[in-house]
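Case study B.
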Amino acid sequence: MNVNISFVGQMITFAILIWVTMKFVWPPLIAAIDRRNKEIADGLAAAEQGRQSLEEAKGRQQEMIADARSKASETMREGKQRHDDIVAAAADEAQAEKQRIIAEGHRQIEAERAKMVLELRENYAALVVDGARRILKREFDAKTHSDMIDKLAEKI
Amino acid sequence: MAGSLHDVSPEGYIRGHLPNLSYDFSAGRWLTNEEVLNLQGSFLTLHVDTLIFSVSLGLLSIGFLAFIAARATDRTPGRLQGFIEMVLMFVADLVKNIFPDPPKIVPPLALTIFVWVFFMNLMDLVPVDTLNVASQGAIHAKMVPTTDINLTFGMSITVFLMIIYYNIKVKGIGGLTHEMLTVPFGAKMLPANLFLRLVEELAKPITLGLRLFGNLFAAEMIFLLVALLPAWIQWVFGGPWAIYHILVVPLQAFIFTALTVVYLSLAHEKH
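Model:
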């Protein structure tokens, strides 16, 4: 193989290529990669932060749910209490009303009965008088009849 | 130039494809294939094919990267930018693993080597006679610049100069001299230390340049041999060899890159 001036030409070519790479290829590409890496790192950090705040929000949400739940059960308990009270009160009232109505009924029945007894008594008296009158009337007639019979019998 | 495209004897075919397209400045003319093969050119001979292909591949690949880099967005990247960022990060990680705190030039240097060598090696997959056939035998040129030892040594010697530069810059002349004379056996074994160090340092550019050259030259040679087979059987050997080459192309680019970074990191560290 003949070594000659070509070798110097290749060294110059090589040097020029190194210079071009150093000046125009390496820095912009590395800069772009580094900037992107930084952006990706920032993005990941932001995502991590987002994840944490989501976690926090979830914690708060749990708290709020627990709170709401206890409030709801409190309200329900109160409501049930109220309901029981109302029912009990209503039952009492109803009982009282029932007693009152029954008492009233008794009273009315009593009054009616008294009235009827009175009426019956009056009617009884009238009936007795009427009956007596009728009996008297009949007895009186019978006497006449018997007189007649007696008279008839005497004739016979 | 010998019309070796029409010389179908195996030796003639291969001899026709081995020489670079050479222009001898001292003679002021193009060299024939025979002259190139017989090493008759002066030192002022330029391998025009290697130069043209390496420069255009370098400008195309690095220029393409620069084009993408200029339009690089830090928002969601397109596929192309994504792919180039992958290559870039691959090289950046490689450098970071070997050389944790490098001078500013090292990562771009590694990227340049990786991309440039990759595309020059990739030319090996272009059929060997493409240029000859396209120019109807007028041009005999080698399309794979990394099969030219001038290119691989041009790169490895440049790396070697950087190794020397960082050795001196980080350790100072005194520190470097002290290190070369006393490491690893201590001051008593001074000549041995110096000899070992010189061999070690000189081996770096030589192995770096020869490894790349040897791999690609041998690969090209196999493709030439395959091209000598009858057309109907070529795929049996050419196919697997080309597929194997899909592995070799990036691997050799990677090895050159990684070793360069290793050598520079060794030069940069103080003992």
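The two ends of chain B are 55 Å apart (CA to CA). The remaining cases will be described in the next quarterly update.
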